[in-house]
Amino acid sequence: MTRPKAVLIGPPGSGKSTVGAALAERLGVTLRDTDADTEAAAGKPIGEIFIDDGEEHFRALERAAVQAALAEHEGVLALGGGAILAAETQELLAGHTVVYLQVGLSEAVKRVGLASARPLLVMNPRSQLRKLLEERLPIYERLGTIVVATDGRDPAEIVEEIIKELERS
Ligand SMILES: Nc1ncnc2c1ncn2[C@@H]1O[C@H](COP(=O)(O)OP(=O)(O)OP(=O)(O)O)[C@@H](O)[C@H]1O
Ligand SMILES: O=C(O)C1=C[C@@H](O)[C@@H](O)[C@H](O)C1
Ligand SMILES: [Mg+2]
């Protein structure tokens, strides 16, 4: 059965795309990112999907993107930050190697401030992120089979820890 070597989950700014790219390179495999797949399916950026079609439509496209990627991809798979909210996705992740990238509120705020626009964090990113972390932390914790702290650590260091954990699992 085809399986990703690692599925990365975590809040916005935890580094799923950044660490995912470095991890894939280190393992000699490709990175697939469900945010990119969702944009490709819709033919427009995530921000525009939210504006034109609403979050519910985005989440439906995201569920389909996650389902396809889990079935097809053999490399590293990064999920959108909120993909784990769907019960269907939570069930599909059972049996996969799921790497939860932990990030604290202050560090997440700094990191998303540096990156491209995220529709859920356009207004008052700190309080939006706080709410989002409160809701999601128990879910990330439950789904992660490998948990890696990222605050104050650079992506290369995080990748080495993930590799060690993958070798042990
Ligand atoms: N360990 C790290 N140390 C410092 N900066 C980091 C680290 N990981 C990621 N970053 C930076 O934080 C920003 C967000 O990272 P990234 O886009 O990888 O997060 P993400 O988890 O994919 O977020 P999203 O859920 O919104 O897709 C980027 O500017 C990235 O360079
Ligand atoms: O945390 C979230 O809900 C999101 C994170 C991003 O990866 C994108 O999937 C989108 O901006 C929503
Ligand atoms: Mg990302």
The CATH first-level class comes to: Alpha Beta
Oligomer: single chain
Structural class: alpha/beta
Count of runs of 4 or more consecutive helical residues: 8
The N- and C-terminal alpha carbons lie at a distance of 18 Å
Explain this structure.
The chain has 169 residues and is α/β, with parallel strands linked by helices. It has one domain (6-168): P-loop containing nucleotide triphosphate hydrolases (Rossmann fold). It has helices spanning 16-27, 34-42, 46-53, 55-72, 87-92, 105-114, 125-143, 155-168, and strands at residues 6-9, 31-33, 76-78, 98-102, 146-149. It starts with 5 loop residues before the first strand and ends with a helix. It binds adenosine-5'-triphosphate, (3R,4S,5R)-3,4,5-trihydroxycyclohex-1-ENE-1-carboxylic acid (SKM) and magnesium ion. The site of adenosine-5'-triphosphate has 21 residues, from helix 1, helix 6 and helix 8.
Question: Which features does this protein show?
Answer:
alpha/beta, binds adenosine-5'-triphosphate, 5 strands, 5-stranded parallel beta sheet, 57% helix, single chain, Rossmann fold
Brief write-up:
The chain has 169 residues and is of the alpha/beta class. It contains eight helices and five strands; from the N terminus they run E-H-E-H-H-H-E-H-E-H-H-E-H.
Topology of this structure?
Elements: E1 6-9, H1 16-27, E2 31-33, H2 34-42, H3 46-53, H4 55-72, E3 76-78, H5 87-92, E4 98-102, H6 105-114, H7 125-143, E5 146-149, H8 155-168
Parallel strand pairs: 1-3, 1-4, 2-3, 4-5
Helix pairs in contact: 1-8, 2-4, 3-4, 6-7
This protein binds adenosine-5'-triphosphate, (3R,4S,5R)-3,4,5-trihydroxycyclohex-1-ENE-1-carboxylic acid (SKM) and magnesium ion.
Magnesium ion (MG) binds next to helix 1.
